[in-house]
Amino acid sequence: MRHSIHWIVLLLLLPCGIHAQRQLRLNEAPARAGEWGYRPAADSVSAVTPPGFCWRLQKSIASYELEVGKGRSFRSLAYRAEGIGWNVHCPPKTLPAGTYTWRYRGVGKRGKKTNWSRPRTFSIAPDATALPLPEKAELLARVPRTHPRLFLRPEDLPRLRELARGALKKQFGRLEKRCERLQKNPPPTREPRKYPATAVRLSEAWRKIWWGNRVYTIKALDGAATLAFVRLLGGKEAFGELARRILLECARWDPRGSTGYRYNDEAGMPYAYHFSRAYTFVHDLLTEEERKLCRRVMAVRGREMFRHLCPRHLWKPYASHSNRAWHFLGEVGIAFLGEIPEAEEWVWFAANVFACAYPVWSDDDGGWHEGSAYWHSYLGRFTWWADVMLAALDLDAFRKPFFSRAGYYPLYLMPPGKVGGGLGDLCARRRARDNVPLVTTFAAQAGNPHWQWYVEQLGGPRLERGFIGFLRGSRPAVKAEAPRALPASRLFRGTGQAVLNSNLLDANACVQVVFKSSPFGSYSHGYEAQNAFLLWAYGERLLIRTGRRDMYGSEHHRRWMWSTRSVNSITVNGRGQVPRSSRARGEILAFETRPRVDVVAGEAGGAYLRHERGKAHRILDRFTRTIVFVKPELILVFDRLVAREPSTFTYWLHAVNRIEVKDQANIRVRAGKVVCDALILTPENLVFTQTDQYDPNPRPRIKLREWHLSGRTPEKRKTVEFVALFRPHRVGEAVPREAQLKRMPGGRALRARLTGGEAVVLLPEREGVAIRAFGLESRGGLSVQVRDRTGEAVETLHLAR
Fewest beta carbons within 10 Å, which of 193, 283, 492, 590? Predict the structure, then answer.
């Protein structure tokens, strides 16, 4: 009987044991689209030492252990850590250049450990930048125990007061005048209203409250922070008293109400950081009861932000708004460290995001996926956190490879004088001079002479407004140097953007082609279609991306601007690429830049998908677009598409003005005093349509109209090749039009006249095929040769197989 009971007990316990064991098995599922992924990735090379480690988040695990072995095994450990609370970790010490292998495992709530993860081998580059993250206790100990703590430390006050009276007296005087205006006309502090029950999300009435509450909040709390800062340096107590009153009146707003982070984050985020700045600057004027009120309201707001961000953001960091919210939370944490119990977790979280999962829409080359508008907006805000980190935590953001190169993105994309900020939301009307405030900061922080030259070409340094600009005005000057020694064109490989320029120094003397085929897909604000291109010449936008964002997520925004039809690309059976998806990926296959010739090629076939019964099916096996730019007068666009079934293909071109079309060999785009003559050499008999209507049109308040030309193949086919030539030039300039496209076994050959000679381009139909024509032989890939009037080669370029 006892034996029977014993076995019954074991059988009852067995399922629980199996269940517990299953719970403690490590989930090593591969990273999906939209996830940060295991980092450092297998076979990757880290440009920083140590790298930030990241692995899949798993709810059943209480903590993690990490081991980093020397070489390809764990016989000798270079680093080990345990008790890691989140799914990321940046060691507090550097690792020498070389090869390493890492693994991790989880520890359950009762101390049971999972299996070790699969090993991943990576290397650290010989020139890797040292960026260790101090241990939590050491990092938090760097924050001043007293106030102020954001942007400056208590010990900085004597030096800043001296600057306010001396070298920066003019700048400080402007701050004082602003405070005097605030005294005469204080900002309203009545709590803003919530959406009425009848409000329709994204409607114009909804939009007015949504954005209006943001503006209202900033006006009040930024005003309070400015008043408090000026009082700290200038000693005018009336400014401090007004700052105190505004702060306390805003503290009485419902933290989950109209400006709550989850209710309206566009109002909730600026409330959090402006309130924290005002609090730390006016801290000495507050009574203990008043401080308690501020702590109570910011504890609620901070917890709400933290619960939303952590730990999700460490594995899925691509949510657009979250990419600024995390460092705003960091500001709250520093301001209230030691005063709100959770504040130290908020600071530690922000430090770990920076070390292990930021920036995300970027590459180490300095590129930015979301386009120049969001580049400016998000990085401009991040520089606040960079300043805060440097002052409070002694962490220098500009040591990261991306930030050491970030100023090259606007320099190449928007040379001095340029209008149009490339591919991305809100970029069409951006001007190069709009970049000056951010590039001013970048140049000073990184000490980069080329970026300083860019700033000076656009009217000189322009510091951020307010007290942050005053603080940045104390940095050492950077000597400017023109980027004449740099190549005129540049690839930002990790974001899939190539910028081909004939002149890097002056946009009005430049022809520019921007091409995108991005591994980030069409997600977020960089949603433009893969393999799309833009053409700019001599101060004018010729071939453009179209539409105007009337409201994020509106019908026009979703159905036109997120559509392949809105850019210079190709649709298949009327279908475009998957909109706003990280699955709609492209890839840069090749890039070469020479003084006379640039070549870039991208693949975007995988971005075309149709969905049936919950499954995605590819429409294309390939969409390879190759652009050859013979600077400055000839652009060849060569497309190869292979469909899964017979299809019609539509070639899209867009312009500011109506496009003149006589036939496909006589197409002209005009903008101001610049024209572009275009001809589509193949396929023949395209059926053209043109309209200035969008599908759908934007809301009535948007009066914009642009022109959309589409050329459709007349019959269905599985494969098609488009060969198109574009010749941009100033009105009145005589440019040759002669071009010959020759079909031969293995591919095609193009011979095109130039002003001072000719260009020959060999286009093999597949990689590895060698062809010969017009006195040039390819080497298994595309070949280009530019010749002078005598037929002498002045530039020859062969793409590798």
Answer: 193
Kindly list the distances between the CA atom of residue 412 and the CA atoms of 153, 343, 374, 708, in Å, as whole numbers in the listed order: 37, 41, 17, 27
DSSP H/E element including 602 = strand 597-603
Instruction: Report how far residue 482's alpha carbon sits from residue 445's, in angstroms, rounded to the nearest whole number.
Output: 18
Per-residue pLDDT of 314-373, as tens digits, reads: 999 999 899 999 999 999 999 999 999 999 999 999 999 999 999 999 999 999 999 999
Give the pLDDT score at 297: 98
Q: Which three-class secondary structure state does DSSP give residue 129?
A: strand
* Closest of 340, 271, 347, 262 to residue 304, by C-alpha: 262
CB 322 within 8 A of CB 36: no
Quote the tokens at residue 552: 């994020």
Tell me how long the chain is: 801
Class level of CATH domain 143-354:
mainly alpha
Strands (E), 613-706: 615-618, 620-630, 634-647, 649-655, 660-663, 666-671, 674-682, 687-691
Who's near 377: CB < 8 A, 6+ residues apart? none
440/457 Cα distance (integer angstroms):
12
Structure tokens, 39:
């980092």
Distance CA 482, CA 415 (A): 12
Take residue 15 and report the two structure tokens written for it: 């399922």
What integer pLDDT is reported at residue 253 of this predicted model? Answer: 98
Q: Which two tokens stand for residue 694?
A: 């969008």
Listed as ranges, residues in the chain with pLDDT below 50 are: 1-2, 4-21
- Structural contact between residues 33 and 583, judged by C-beta atoms closer than 8 angstroms: yes
Sorted by sequence, the CB contacts under 8 Å of residue 638 that are 6+ apart come out as 625, 626, 627, 628, 721, 722, 723, 724, 763, 782
Is 490-730 a CATH 2.70.98.70 domain? Answer: yes
**153-to-145, 350, 584 alpha-carbon distances in Å:** 10, 19, 47
Please report the pLDDT score of residue 5 as a whole number. Answer: 46
Q: Do domains 143-354 and 490-730 have the same CATH topology?
A: no
> Rounded to an integer, what distance in angstroms lies between the CA atom of residue 731 and that of residue 684?
28
Enter the CATH code of domain 1-132: 2.60.40.10
- Please report the DSSP string for 102-154 in residue order: EEEEEE-TTS-B-PPPPPEEEEEEEEEEE-----HHHHHHTS-SSS--SSS-G
- Domains of the chain, by residue range, sit at 1-132, 143-354, 359-486, 490-730, 738-801
